[in-house]
Amino acid sequence: MQKRGLTAAGTQRWYYHLCRSSAVKKRSDTQVRHHRMLFTRWLTGNRSLSEIADEYGVSRRTLIRWFKPLWQHFQQPIVLSRTSCSIYILDGVYLSGRENAALICKTMDAQISWQFAERETLVNWLNFLTKLPVPDAAVMDGQKELLAATQCLWAQTKIQRCIVHIGRRARIKLTRQPKTDASKELLKLIQRLFTVHTKKQRGHWLCVYRCWERRHSTFLKEHSYGEPLTEKNAHGGTHTAIFVLRAHSFVMHYHTFLPSSTTRMCHEQRTMLKMK
After folding, report:
1. CB–CB of 112/78 below 8 Å?
2. Parallel, antiparallel or unpaired: strands 137-140 and 158-161
3. Taking residues 85-99, what's their average pLDDT?
4. Are residues 234 and 154 in the same domain?
5. Full-prediction pTM beyond 0.85?
6. At what angle are helices 49-56 and 28-44 packed, to 10 degrees?
C-alpha cells in the first residue's frame, strides 16, 4: 500500500497493489458520531427525514439505514407505576444552549421517565404529562408552561415550588441590595423559606407574609399612568418586579414527605445525559 495523490477534498488516497485499486481510509467512529448527531437533531427537532436528507445530499432511505442501528442503543423511558402516595419531581434539562430539552419526571423510589423535545413548551409538557399516572403531589420550578400543564391535567395535585428557584428568582427581580423597604423585607422573607421544614413553620411564615402585604398594601397598589402597557407590565403596576415575584413564587404545600427542591435531581440528570 502506497500513497497516491489526494482527492478533490484534500484527503490522502492510498493505492493497493494486490487488488490494483485506490481508496481512502475511513474512520468508523467519526461516521457513527456523525450519524448519531443527525439522529439526535431529527428526534428533538421539527424537521422531517426528507428535509434533513435534502440538506446533506442523501436519500430518505439512506437516512433510515443510518438510523436503524441507533434505535437499538436508544434507551426507552420506563412506564411509571402508581403507588399509594405518588410524588413526582418534574424538571426540564437543556442539553445544548436553549435547544434539545429533556423533560424529566422522577419519583421518590428512583423511577425515572423522560421525553425529548425541542423546548419546554406547553404542548410538549402536556404530551409528556398525559402519559404519567396522576400523582398526589409534584415538586417543580417556576417554569410557567409546566405549571400551566399540571394545573390543566392534575387539578387536585398539590404543587410544591422549588425554594432554590424561588430564591434565585428573588435575587434576579429584587437584586441583592433592594432600594425600597418593601423589597428589603420581602427578600428577607424569601431567605427565611430555607428554614421552613414543618407545617407549623409554614403557617408562621405565611402569617408573617400576610402581615407584610397588609403593611405595604398602599405601596403595592401604586400604578403608573401615561406608559403603554407591555407584556412585562400588563397589570399597570409601578413595582413590576415585586408583582411578578408575588404572582409566581408562593405556590407551596409544605409536608414532611415532600422534597423542597428540584436542583439536585436536575444536576444529576444533566450530568448523566451529557456523559451519554
Report:
1. yes
2. parallel
3. 76
4. no
5. no
6. 140
